[in-house]
Amino acid sequence: MVQEAKALDIVELVEQAVAKHGARRDAVIPILNEINQAFGYIPTAALPEIRRRIHAPAEGVFLADSHLYSAASFYQLFSLKPLGRHVIRFCESAPCHVMGGRQVIQALQNELGLEIGETSQDGKWSLLTTSCLGVCGVGPVFLVDDDIYGNVTSDQVPEILARYK
Amino acid sequence: MKVIRSMVLVSVDQASLERGAEEVFHKFLEEIDEFGLSDKIAVSTIRDVGLRDDIPLVIVYPDAAVYGPVRLEDVHTIVEEHLYKGNIVPHLLALMRELAPEIAWTRDRRGTLPIEKRIVLERAGIVNPESIEDYILNDGFQALGKALTQMTPAEVIAEIDKSGLQGRGGAGFPTGRKWSFVASTPGSPKYVICNADESEPGTFKDRLILEGDPFSIVEAMTIAGYAIGAHEGYIYIRGEYPRAYHLIENAIHQAEMLGLLGDHIFGTDYSFHIHPHAGAGAYICGEETALIESLEGKRGMPRPRPPYPTTYGLFGKPTVVNNVETLANVPPILRNGAVWYREVGSPKSTGTKVYTILGNVNFTGLIEVPMGITLREVIDIYGKGMRNGKKLKLVQTGGSSGTIVPAKLQDTPLDFDSFRNAGVSLGSGALLVCDEDTCVVDLAKVILRFFRNECCGKCTPCRIGTLRLYEIINQISEGKAVLSDLEVMQNISEAMSEVSNCGLGQTASTALRDILKYFREEVEMHIIDKVCPVGVCPIAKHESELMQKAG
Amino acid sequence: MISLTINGQTLDVPENTTVLKAAEQAGIVIPTLCNHKDLTPYGGCRLCSVDIQGLRLPATACTMLVAPGMIVRTESPALTRYRRTILELLLVRFYDAGYTHSNGSPTIDSQFAYWVNYYGIDMKSTMAQKPFRLIDSDPNPFIWVDKNKCIMCTRCVRACAEVQCRFVWTQAYRGYDLRIVAGADTTMLQARCESCGACVAHCPTGALDNKMSVKLGPPDRLVTTTCSYCGVGCQLDLNIKDDVPGGRVLRVTSNAKAPINGDHLCVKGRYGYDFIQSPNRLKQPCVRKYLLDGTARPHNRGSWVEVDWDTALDFAARGLRNARDQYGVHSIGLLTSGRCLNEENYLMNKLARQLLGTNNIDCCERVSHASVVDGLESGLGLNAPSNSLDDVANEAKSILMIGTNTSEQHPIFGVKLRRAVLWRGCKLVVAHPDFINMSEYAALRLVHRPGTEAALVNGLMHIILKNGWEDRTFIEKYTTGFQDFESCLDKFTPEYVAQQSGLDETSLQHAAEILATNRPMAIVWGIDLANYPAARRNVLSLINLQLLLGNFGVPGGGVIPLRTQNNTQGACDMGGHPSYYPGYQPVDSDATRKKFEAAWGKGLPTRPGLTATQMMSAAAEGRLRALFILGEDLVAGASNGSHIQRGLHNCDFVVHMAAFDSETSRHADVLLPGVTFAEKTGTFTNTERRIQMVHQAIAPQGNARPDWLALTELSRHLRRNNGDGDYSDWDYHDTSQIMTEIAALTPIYAGISHERLEQITCLQWPVKNLSHPGTPMLSMEHFAGGRGRFTRIEAAEADS
Questions:
Q1: Is residue B332 part of a domain?
Q2: In this complex, is the C-beta atom of B401 within 8 Å of any C-beta atom belonging to chain C?
Q3: CATH homologous superfamily for A86-161?
């Protein structure tokens, strides 16, 4: 099962993130980032918590939940729904593709039985794509959580996946 | 003259040391000496290789071969086979697995080649990116010191202007002019932004500068701030580069500790603060006005222009936005003078350019070469020729938004002017080399999918144009398109490049346009004959049918 | 001015004009979708791309500013091609399910459809072939959402943010997946939507529509009129369908040309129109059965019997006459209505004074508003706000809002103030015991104990004097009584006021600083101040504060009492007042009285009459025997309802004219069915003294009659002999005739006529003659004696 964030944790985390980055409109992205990092996604319940701490009409800062949702949904590294325990981000950019990425993503899909953007029933895997990770010298490339795999071929896929519990 | 041909890195993290890394290191020195290679090959250490079980690791440059675990008795073989004879030893190579951040970047940064001319990558891989002392020992902060103590802001701008430095983000706008615009625009405060949102697929030069020489960006931003009269700077680093972020954060901290950043820099009245900012995954934020919106905590959607950031930038104030590579040129120019800089490159495009060579060549990686060399040179000399002896079909220059250069145009010099004349974009410096096994429809599909996913959605031609083009190219690759679809594509592509709001929409269909220009026949075969000549597309490759038709 | 050339035509336009607006001035139409005159340019649809000489690529006319010597070409074969492609692309993600949508204009379906058609594209065959999103996807009761028709122009997003300042709509996700969502992808109401419908009014495709009338089709005609909900005086278009005799209201739409509100309305104005055709309307005159039987009045007045108008009016006249004959003229009272037309209120005043011979006339709303009105008269000598709504919204650097829940009671003005805060940094200090919506926009919120307003204001003045923030020059030149007044502030030290009001001293200091150092400062109050104990004293304190800071006679300053009803101001202006003839001409002035006696051909009473409150007491005590109540529910509208009920209950004879049955009509003997604003023509005067036309849109419901007509007819039943003045007759065929009479007798309305109002919508009294432009701001010379009067306010403790 996919784990959802708990209300108390959310408040505490927002508190910390706002303290760290400042209760400012231009701190919104770093704050969202902290939350996304901590929970693996941004729970909607976090948005009013952030809004409450930054909204300051006296200083001309007017923030609504819609502003935050709008920003949170824009960026690819943010997720608005819980993801699996392990998140695979496959680079689907042209350089990796030309160097054999097409076969690798097919192998990943077959191995996991997931379409791109899906999370497995047991909550173990999410299969996402990403734009260029900037390690094209060793393409095709994918990330499993924070681990980068480069020069991958399709027959290495099962072996790599097997490393994750 | 002593020329270092290769470099050997031995991992010396705690775990490696426990498994005899020290001995391996000394063994390499002995063996290299035995073969008389001491003048040509350097041996050094690398500390952070991540948690792995195949240690000690040995990495050999320029080939970036990773061996591991290397036992004492393997050293002789590696030196003899690889360093002496030049053949990689496959059975000793480390198994392919996750690359720790250190390895990931050092693997990309291949060794120095004879014709390479290093200005911006001068220190990358040589100095310790986490040590300000190391940076200072290698001429660091000399330029800033000179600027603050011997030059007026106007003189700094004049020197940059005289150097002919052009923006390396793609558009090639003269940096000196941009600075003088902002310096002379009324309004305060003013801001310096370093655009480190390097997102063009196939480009990682900025990452290597940030990770290899982070202090130079801190120094350059401070110089820019001094020149334009700003006291705050932001560096927007894409979220996919956590290590670069960490190193920059560290560089800022160390510079502040030594009074080289912050209040009263070098004991002068000048103060400058730099705030690092991590992006969150959006290609469009490389566009400067989108980047500014994103810095302000909003969606990264480009603003209408004019007004330009030089008059209406961050928080509505005059702002200089410079790319990482552009800024990296600034300290060397101030240190060595504009005259020195102009001697490198071609008269109209001065200095060097960092390229990334990718795709179906024998060597993929990063080079810094003077402006004006040709594609053929890049492929044959730096790329060490086509992989597996295949024929060159095309090169995409400047990343996914760049142009397609067919093999017949490979003698065009790589500089801003020649490229502009040939209708080719130099852009980010990514050179994606594709061999004869590449299907142009398949390539277009990947590129169009990328733009469909990365379009911000603000303007109609781009939002629905990228969607429609991707749909149609898919139909072509499935053999379900009709010829008139090409006309539809051309109409959409034209509207996109003419009336989109920003560079993304204007260039998203560049590759498609060029493919239809140079490879129309191949595309039409998918439509008329329902055949993919290369055999990549999901239509069955009916060779017999094809032959029947030809016959 | 900047000179540029568009399509060969050279023209001069002001700096910072967009190319689009410049072209408009030259009569050149450039197609647009995402642009709207009320909203910040967006540059998203790209339809308005034009060629500008010297630029590599076309530029969007909506965002590009003109530059000297600019040469623009708005049409070319290439531009036409791009525009066609853009529209075709939009249609790829557009699906029209074919239901009739609600739109003010009967000829064009939508702006989008217009351009699609203009460029020769067939919408049906080009658009998506099936819906890709849920039609009617939001449960908002007023706003219909069909995202199949959304073209991402973001006009709704910008309208909600920039016009309503609510930020309900937003863009979410990106690229091909871009969509407009409410809040954090919730329902509109969860995203704190106020259902003002601004997004609907600004939508160019019908993706957002009016839910109640979405399938009702286009109207046969539009009637522009003035809203009847509050004192702001918005104008709107009643959409009329003529498929029933007299027509019916299909819906309300906003009118971009409306002087106060433009394309903006509040939820009440836009969606609260069903009362007009409510089945609960009174449609037939009624009298109590005892009257028909000729028997004595039962305790509860007995049952109702429907009768014809003549019978009802006859009983009404007889009842009033009987009271006068038996108990004298002072036993009759008349209450006018802030809901009714100026012309009707004028007739009430004429009925009382000319036909019945009494000054016992007052405005219904005064029952709850009396003390405020008195305070204004006493401090300024004028029962009127000093400045205009827009003036405050556009010019004030700070605003003290006290005793008003503006965004509920005067929504459009509330929104204007929100805009002042958000878009130009105006500092708002909200003093209210409750957490009201405006507090969200406040720089400082003061939660004081109800009843300590005067202490609070005195405390602020104490701090102001301590810091030398007062305007000495103004005080010297334009005020009286300062010497005497000053000492009354001595005891209102911050400590003392804090203890009284429950506020902390820091807040008081902060409030004083904001208000005194951000001038001009305006004070806005409303009905909640009137409902506080000792409202008169509060008003005087607030006037003291403005005199102290010299905030009169400057744009963005002054005092703005917000009138609850759409025509409270007009009802008072029209002599609905025991002491004044129309235009605040005192009844105890011989010259004035003689003027009216000559005009009406009749001797008039000399002494001021009873106020509404006094009438109720008099009725309860049996001194007042007959009441004529126009227009409204006295009981429900007042804070002291039981007092009124007692008065009404005791009164021998009560005539009530209203559109609906109510608590008040339970106490009536004769009930006359009146009409709503949609069924009559005349004028309203809004809270900023602006006189505006009301236009009849449909025939009166059932057997109801406009009040002015009923009053005219009642006069025939009352009149015994014609006088011989110029205006002694009651032969009114329409309300414009009545307005001519008002103008002749009322100097502040002298320049008003219906004919003129049809042309100019921004006439604010005083309007001295037919060529006078009106007076948006009252300067000191308009006040009594040219000076404002300081009044000592001593009391501090909360009154009971």
A1: yes
A2: no
A3: Glutaredoxin (3.40.30.10)
